[in-house]
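User: Structure with D-xylulose, tokens only please.
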Amino acid sequence: MAYFLGIDAGTQSMKGLLIDPAKSWCSEPFSVHFGRELGSYNSPDGFLPDDDPAIRHADPCMWLDALDMLLAKMRDAGLPMAQVEGISGSAQQHGTVYLNQRAGHILAALSPTRNLAEQLRPALSRPSAPIWMDASTGAECRELRRQYGEELRRITGSNAAERFSGPQIMKFARQEPERYRETASIALVSSFLASVLAGKIMPMDRGDAAGMNLLDLRTLRWHEGIVEFTAPGLREKLPPCVPSDTVGGILSAYFARYGLRPGIPINVFSGDNPCSLIGCGGAAPGTAIISLGTSDTFFGSVADLSRTERMRFGHIFGNPAGGFMTLLCFANGSLTREAVRKKFAMSRFAFEAAAAAATPGKYPLLPFLFPESTPAVAEPGIRCDFDPAALPSGEFIRAVLEAQLLTIKYHAGITEAPASVQLTGGASASPILRRLAADIFQSPVVIGGHAEAAALGAAMRGANSCGSWQFDRLTEKFCTATEVIRPDRSMRPIYDRALAEFTVLLHRHGF
Ligand code: XUL
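Assistant:
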């Protein structure tokens, strides 16, 4: 029996599961919630509070404590850790971890008698890591746009984006030159966690590295000019960038404490979106996927780069199964849904029921409760033509949920109903969101077999790279639909009108 471990370091929690492809078996997911279980990090939503809503950093040691806790939970639940034959992982994209010169030595000499966070804190040259929610690099993005214009999107697959690693590194190098100088190596959240498991600095997966505004997608190498323009000496601080199926290292002896066998192969970790693409069965082109998580994303695999030209806020990342994927990211996802639910002090059940009973498509609004990336909104706030506080709670909740789906439809440029839309991510369990997605897209909504698509996709990548399972076989085994929600055709004119009104509102507010 050969098991593969998949780890997903999300924004608010870290999850892990095992798969045994020969038996088409998948364990239940295990998780550690940063806010609830690691309260000492003062990060209820997975990031350190800051009065400036554009600044969003997390303490990398919180992720290390979560990794220790997660593996202990899996061991204590009696999972067959000793029979794990390979590990892969997924992590929130774009976040960067800054390591000093001592990091290599500390990673190689991890002692099993002390926990990870305690040992690795001295390896950090910057105590916190900017994450994908950080929108504080407007000036740096403007500079990149001035220097490279449209070329940047053609080369790196994305316009300069505030949350992307390149602009974040540029800001750090300028504002904290001393610490930048002390930085010997920069990791993505994904490559940082893989490095800890391997006890050495791991390479970056190209699929995730495409979220940095630094990688040339045509050559799949760092773009020397953009790298040098971003920060002096940056080239020496970036690890090699490798194909997604690379086994980049072997498990450090430290992890024997969780019953895992030191020396088993570790596949380079990737971003949560590339891993979700795999976990949703979207490795081959043709499936439109919406992930409803802390951020909402819309993505699908593509064979070539031609579509990049049309998507103003779109991105191109690498598909772990080969080729590329397109992605749109909406920062006002579950955090916004949760903020609205808390505002009305409602249970999840009451929240759902109130929205379901409200009027469809009646109140167009732009619910930017947090800074948004699609479209770029630095100043949070709700934009609409009425007083949102005067709306009954159910009407307001429904208007927010509808707007979250209408914005996806608008920015993805969907004019024809897709053959189907697959929903994944934590909030895909919500009956009202499933219903609204079917009615707004006028497409059957397919629910995958697994809510934790990123962790599942990571485990599948582990089985592919460390166990030589093909992705099409893994997809057959793990990615079957469990439910299909059919659209209500009578809703079509209502949501066509709602989309038209939503578009007018966006334009009127200059987006
Ligand atoms: C994608 C993005 C988010 C993060 C967190 O560009 O910023 O989806 O990966 O999930």
